[in-house]
Amino acid sequence: MTLFQASAGDADPQSRPLLLLGQLHHLHRVPWSHVRGKLQPRVTEELWQAALSTLNPNPTDSCPLYLNYATVAALPSRVSRHNSPSAAHFVTRLVRTCLPPGTHRCILMVCERSDAFASACALARAFPLFTHRSGASRRTEKKTVTVEFFLVGQDNGPVEVSTLQCLTNATEGVRLAARIVDTPCNEMNTDTFLEEIKKVGKDLGITPTIIRDEELKTRGFGGIYGVGKAAVHPPALAVLSHTPEGATQTIAWVGKGIVYDTGGLSIKGKTTMPGMKRDCGGAAAVLGAFRAAIKQGFKDNLHAVFCLAENSVGPNATRPDDIHLLYSGKTVEINNTDAEGRLVLADGVSYACKDLGADIILDIATLTGAQGIATGKYHAAVLTNSAEWEAACVKAGTRCGDLVHPLVYCPELHFSEFTSAVADMKNSVADRDNSPSSCAGLFIASHIGFDWPGVWVHLDIAAPVHAGERATGFGVALLLALFGRASEDPLLNLVSPLGCEADAPEADAERDSKRRRLV
Q1: Residue 342 falls in the annotated catalytic set
Q2: What would the pLDDT profile of 311-355 be if each residue is shown by its tens digit?
Q3: Catalytic annotation on 268?
Q4: Most buried by CB count within 10 Å: which residue of 170, 190, 198, 213?
Q5: Shortest CA distance to 96 belongs to which of 125, 72, 71, 136?
Q6: Which among 36, 219, 268, 511 is annotated as catalytic?
Q7: Looking at the predicted structure, is the pLDDT value of residue 368 above 50?
Q8: What residues does the Cytosol aminopeptidase domain cover (predicted)?
C-alpha cells in the first residue's frame, strides 16, 4: 500500500526505513530542519551534508546514510529533449534498487511542482500488486510505503489535499492497469476482465454496456468476433460512459484487450509467445485512466471502449484467406491471424464514431513488435491525423513520464500495403519493411475514414507496457495528462499540454476548423 501524505511525520529510520530522492541541486535545497526528524538519532547534520557532497550522479548515484535503513539517491541533473524533466524512469529504478527493506517505509520525494505528477506515477510503478509467490500469501502484516513530497523551485508551497487525492487516484490507476497486465490468462480471461470493468463501473456509479459472443456477430462486429470466436471465454465489446451536464464535446478512448495472443492459426513460436498476456495493455490503461479521470472530475463526455478477445486456436478459429465484414461496413481478407489487434480496434473506433458520436477518438494498444524498433523500449509511438495532437502527445509524455514519439502519418503512400484482390483490404502488409507500425495504425484509421473531420490518435505501447518481466501501467498517466484540460483538477490542468495557445505549434494556425481541442 502506497500512501501520499502532506507530511510523513518523524520516525527513527531503524523503525521506519527512509529513501530521500531527487535531483542533486534540489536535494541541496532541503533544509536540515525538514529531514532531521526523519533521520535522527542515526544521522547527524554533518553526515547528511557529507553524503550530499559525495553524490556524483552519472546518470544517477546513491549514498547510504545509516546501514541499510536510510539512503539518499540523486536523479540525473539533466535530461535530453526527448526525456521527461522528472527523469521518471530513473525514479522507478532508484526506488527499486535503493529503498531500504522493511514493513513500513518512507520516501521523501524532492522535486518541482510541475514534476510531482510524473514522479508519483513513477513511484507507483515500483510497487506492483500482482504476485503468486507463496511467501506473499503467508505474510500477515501488510507492507506500507508513505510518500511525502518536498516541493522546490517556483510554486513550492505545501502540497494541497486535493493534489494528494489526485496523485492517489492516478497511481491507483497505474497499479490497476499493471496488475491486469501482469495477471496470466488462466485468471485474466475475458470474463475476468469484464468483472474488472464492472467493478470500476460500480465504483463510479456507471453501468457498462456489454455486447458479447453471438450478439457481436449478429450486430456486425466481425473484427472482435472473428478474433475471439475460437476461445473458451467469448469475446466482448464493453463500454463505460460518463456524460455530465454541460459537456461540449465527446471523447472516446478505445483499448485493445487481447487477454492472450497465441497468434491464432498464424501461430507464434515458443520464444515469441511468452509474455503475450500483456496484449491487453491498451484496455488496461483505458480502465485505469477512466477511473482516475472520472474521480477527479471530467467535464466532457468520455467513453471507455474495451475490445476484449482471446486470440486462440481451435476448430472455430479464423483462417488465413477468410474474409470478415467489420462494423465499419468494410470487408477484410485475413492474410495473418497474428495481426488481430487492428481488427478488434477497427470495430471499436467504428462504434465510437457511429454509435457514440465521438469528436475525438484515441485508440491505445500493444499493436506491433515493430514499435519497439521504431521508437524504442521507453517511448510509445503516436500516429494521428492532427499535427497539433501529435505535438500534444509528445509534450504530455514529457510532463507525465509516459514518453511518446511520432510515427510517419502518410496514408496516401502507405495504405496500399493492404491492397486485396477480393476484399476492401487485407489485414497485414505486403512489405514488412515499409513502416509497419504506421501501416498498422492506418488500418485502424481506415475504418473511420481518412477524411473523417474529427481528431484520431493512435498510441502503440507494445514495448513500454512492460519493463523486463513486469508491467508498467503505461498509458494511464499519459491519458490523464493529455486530456487534463477537460478535468476539474488543477494538477491535471498543469500537466496538460492542450488548451493553452502558448503551447500550440505555429502550424496550428492552418489546422482544420472542425478539429476541436480541449478547452
Answers
A1: yes
A2: 999 999 999 999 999 999 999 999 999 999 999 999 999 999 999
A3: yes
A4: 170
A5: 125
A6: 268
A7: yes
A8: 336-343
